[in-house]
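Q: Got a minute? One more chain.
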Amino acid sequence: MTQPKYLAKSEETIVSDLRRLFRQYGYRQYKMSKFEEYDLYVENKRFLVSDNVITFTDLDGHLRALKPDVTLSIAKNASVDTSTAQKLFYHENVYRAERGSHEYREIMQIGLESIGNIDLYATGEAVMLAAGSLALISRDYLLDLSHMGVITAILDEADLSNGQQAELLDALSAKNVSGIRQCCCRFGLSDEFADRLAALTGLYGPALLILPRLKALSPNPQADEAIRQLETVCRMLEASGYGDRINLDFSIVNDMSYYNSIIFQGYIEGIPTPVLSGGRYDSLMTRFGKDAGAVGFAIYLSALESLAPRRASYDVDALLLYSADSSPEILASAVRELTDKGMTVQVQQEIPPMLRYRTLMKLTEGGVITLEKHD
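A: Always. Here it is, folded:
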C-alpha cells in the first residue's frame, strides 16, 4: 500500500526558512496595500492565474480591487534604478478563485522579484533561489526550465498571426504533436517547421543532457543566444549544487507579451500542480513604461495544504497538573526547571481532552512527581 506523503515542516517553518534565505542574498521585504485600481487587472488579465477579481467602489467613487496578484503591483509601483537591481521579497495574501474552483479564497504567497539592471547573473540567481526554496520545502522536488526566446525564435521563422501563435503554443503546452502538425498544415507551414516545433515536445530531462539536442534544433542566431543563456543558468545551478534537480521542459510556455526569457516551474512530490512559478518579464515592465528588466517567482503556499506535516507523536513533552491552592511562584519555578531541560510543558488543573502528552506530572507539597510516562 502506498504511504501518504507528508511535509516535514509546518507552513510557519517554511515561511521562516524562506525569509531567511531571501535575506541571506540581500533581498528586502516589500509591503504593499491590499487594494489596487481595478484598471490594473483589467489591462493585464492575461498575466493573472484567474481573471476573476473581487471589486468594490471606494469612498471617492473609484473602482478598486482586492489584489489577485503581487507581481503586477510591484511592477507598477516599485521605483526603478537602471544602474542596479532592486531586490525584493514579499509575503502577502492574494484574493482570487483558484483553477477549477468557483469560490474566492484568501491565498498566502511568498516570493521575490529583482527589478532594474538584470543581467544573466541576476536571472540565474533568481532561478537558483527558486531551486533553493523548493529544497527548503521538501527533499523531493524538481525545477523545470524553459526559455521563451527559443520558442519565439522558432515561431518567428513563420509569418503567423497572434491567433495562430496562440494555437501552436496551446498545442506545445499540451505536448500535442498531432495538434502541432494539424495547425501547421492548416496554416500552410512547411514540414520542416512542423518537425522542429514537434521536436520541442520531446525535449524533457536533465538540462545538461538535453542542451545538445536543443542546439541541433536552433534555426537562427536569436535561438542560439537564448540557448546560450539557458546553458549558462543551468551551469550556475550545477555550481550551486542543484544540477541533479533541474530539467528542461519546453511545454512550459507563457504569454509572449509579458515573458521574454527564461521561465520555470517548481514541483514537490505528491502535488500534481506547480507549487512555484516564475520567469523573466521585461516585457511587463515595458507595458508600465519602465525601461528595466525584471525576474522573479512566486510560491503558492496553498498548494502545500494537501501535504500536511506529519503530526508529532505528542503535543507536549509534559503535562503538569496543579491544584487551586498551589503556589503560583512554586508552580512557575517548577515550569522553568522543566523548560530549562528543553521540554515543552503545558500547565493545567485537569487533563484536557485530546491532548497528547509524553509525561504526566503533578505539583505536590513535596515537589513535582511523575504520574505517567509514555515512550
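A: DSSP finds twelve helices and 16 strands in the chain.
Q: Perfect, thanks.
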